[in-house]
Amino acid sequence: MNNGPLTLLGKILQNYGLQLPKASCTVELPISFWLMDPINGSLIIDQIREKYITICKPTFTYFTIDFKSKKGNEHLVKCQQKCRNFCRERSLNLIDQNIGLSPFVQLYSRRLKAGQICVSTIDQISLTGSVGCLPLKLSAHSISYSLGTGKIWWKVPKQCQVRIKLAKNAVVNQDLTNLTIFIANKIQEHLGEECDHFLIELSGDCLDNFTNEQRFSLCGITQMISCVGVILPINEKSFKKNQQIISSDPKKLMFADPNAKYDSQMEINFVSTQAWGCSLHSCGGNFRHKNQLLQTLKGKKVGTCYLIANSNTIKHFVSLFQEFGSDLKIKKYVSLFVIPETIQDYQRCIQNGSLQILLEMGANVMSPSIILFGLNNKFDISTENEKNKKEQEKEIVEEKKNLVEKEEFLNLYAGNYSPNWLLKVLWCSLETISNAVIMGKL
After folding, report:
1. What tens digit of pLDDT does each residue of 146-158 get?
2. What are 198's strand-pairing partners?
3. Which of 23, 60, 139, 313 could form a disulfide with 309 if both were Cys (CB 3.0 to 4.6 A apart)?
4. Please, what sign has the CA dihedral across residues 418, 421, 427, 433?
5. What global pTM score does this model have?
6. What does the domain layout of the chain look like in residue ranges?
């Protein structure tokens, strides 16, 4: 068996009598549980029928419908009905209740046990990781194969441990979405392009007090940064907190050993990070008033601060910054990162001039992150995020170009001819004349 301290992944594999191989090695895993949503489940049903697959563990195979589809969404209606018919035909488990996300999460969690290896479609992968199970995100072809054999070949990912520290009096209910966005941004920044090769293991004493729904939301990081998956440990404290929800054997709780070795480790410390605006105020500091902000900036160097907010909140704080005087440069006191919550907020910040003022003051403006989507949203998030990022960069370039042209026009109108501007005009004139000579027009 494995020697030395084990990571959470190592503990889960040990639970099945397997050793943890090196990253990039392929291992055959036995599957304990299957979870499938209607749309992806419909594709899996087609694969099963096409290849005449017999489901080996019908008792542990679940199709899920947590809400009634709207009349306009005919595709979803057909997918849901196909799942209902298939479950009746094969005597499979079907949870078909219009109960919404929160009770749905609790309902499923009772059927999962920490330390299991679970196959799920993209919508359910956050659920399996939140209760200490190994979440396997597979294609419809791979899932249909595993349903017939009870096993799957899996490429072992790299492992990254992310330690999270919150203030003792932090109340995460109010800022859970922004908390998740912030953590996702920091992980993606830390791992870079290698992010999709990593299994993320979140840790920290603060997680012991999270409800299962909050743990589920944290695991939504998987959908935002396209990593292999996000998994949370189940120890004695978290088990007692959620014992009515998490179905597990207290003697077989799943958490990493101290000093376990990871391919990468990082810490996100909200205790020392000040957050401005309406977001993350319970995790760091909340500077809603000018006097508080002035005292903080003038009293000492704060360090790194994040403003994750909508366009109105960002505009409000820009007005506070402007009252400090033109000599204030943010970089002297603090490294400020501004993250509009949505693409629409980002565009409004460009239109009302807030973005330009922040850039001139030395702030760093980050691209908006994707907020957790509902179960009925289907698209490639990584592609959409990249597309949005390119559009934002293009808008910034256009905005800067317009500002430069406007400044040059005003200088020309006022008779202020800068040497650089005159050289530019002269060069353009010479270039035009030379082109005309080459074409024989002069």
Report:
1. 999 999 999 999 9
2. 158
3. 313
4. negative
5. 0.62
6. 8-269, 274-378
